[in-house]
Amino acid sequence: MLPELYRDLPLDPARKEIRVLTLASGDGDTPLECTLKTISLGDKSIRFSALSYVWGDPADTTIINVNNVHVPVTKSLAGALSSLKNCLTPRLRKEFIWADAICINQQDIAERTQQVRSMAEIYSTASHVIVWLGDGNQHTDLAISMMCSPGFRAGLDGERAPTRDEIKVDVVLKHDLCKRQWWQRLWVRQEFVLATRAWDYPELQNLWAECRKEVTGFEDDVPTTKGIHPISLDNIYRLYHRNGPFSLPYAVRYVLRNSIATNALDFIYGLLGLLQDSDRDRITLDYNMEPMELFQQVSNILWREHHWFMLGDLLPILEFQPDEKNIPRGCPILQRSQLGAGRTTALYRLKVY
Question: Which residue numbers delimit the Heterokaryon incompatibility domain (predicted)?
Answer without folding.
Answer: 48-191
